[in-house]
Amino acid sequence: MKRLLAAFALHLALIPGLAGVAHAAAPTGQIGAMLAKPDQLCGTFDQTKRLAGMKKPLVSTGRFCVVAGKGVLWRTLKPFPNTLRLKRDEIVHLQGDRVAMRLDARQEPTVRMINGVLFSLLSGDLGQLDSLFEVDGSVSGDSWKVALKARNAALARAIGAISLEGGAYVRSIQMVEDSGDRTEIVFSNIKTGPGAVLPEEAAQL
Fold first, then answer.
1. Is 84 helix (H, G, I), strand (E, B) or coil?
2. Burial of 171 by CB count in 10 Å (0-12 exposed, 13-18 middle, 19+ buried)?
3. pLDDT reading at 101 higher than 70
4. Structure pTM?
5. Which positions ≥6 away from 58 have C-beta within 8 Å?
6. 95 near 84, Cβ under 8 Å?
7. E strands present in the chain
8. Which CATH architecture has domain 2-189?
9. Over the stretch 105-142, which tens digit does the pLDDT of each residue have?
């Protein structure tokens, strides 16, 4: 179960926000002020995962939506359709309209930890994760870079080391696992406000 949760956390490293701590090397207040926090945000992603020992990377593309008060929808469209839905207390894996798997925080406390981290990231809350991450970052013009390193060994195994780049929104995320596996996600076609969420996505949130 823990390995599965780790895979979900890695797969869901899409989040359009950023978290950090009050650290002298990271201008978190300046970065926080740069981040937009819309109620609805959707876009497309290109994800590339490089597994240690394998020459050919695993590539996937799709759409994501973040809706305040509802959750996160992560829709892989290629090479195989696959949908994950995050809410505060659960992670749901959907195949079409069928629930293939549901992870509930009441049975698996790790779900709450992972979702807490991810929701803090998506909300751009720069003060909620000070006990979980060491952070380093910089600002140049209207762009920023941040590196997050988990303090807790269990969280490090689940999420790994994270680096983010962006401006008003996150443009890319890179994750590195202890095994050497690397995941890079690039976001594009960002839309916010009414109309950002497609009807079929609204039905799943």
1. strand
2. middle
3. yes
4. 0.78
5. 48, 49, 50, 51
6. no
7. 40-50, 58-67, 71-78, 82-87, 90-95, 98-104, 133-140, 143-150, 161-166, 170-176, 182-192
8. Clam (2.50)
9. 676 666 666 666 666 655 555 556 566 778 788 899 99
Q: Map tokens 């988990």 to a residue.
A: 150
β-strand partners of 181: none
| Cβ neighbourhood burial of 140 (10 Å; 0-12, 13-18, 19+) | exposed
Q: How many CA atoms lie within 13 A of 201 on its CB side?
A: 25
Q: Hunting for tokens 């890695």 — which residue is that?
A: 10
Q: Which structure tokens are listed for 193?
A: 């406000």
Burial (CB count within 10 angstroms: exposed 0-12, middle 13-18, buried 19+), residue 51: middle
Residue 38: cis peptide before it, omega within 30 degrees of 0: no
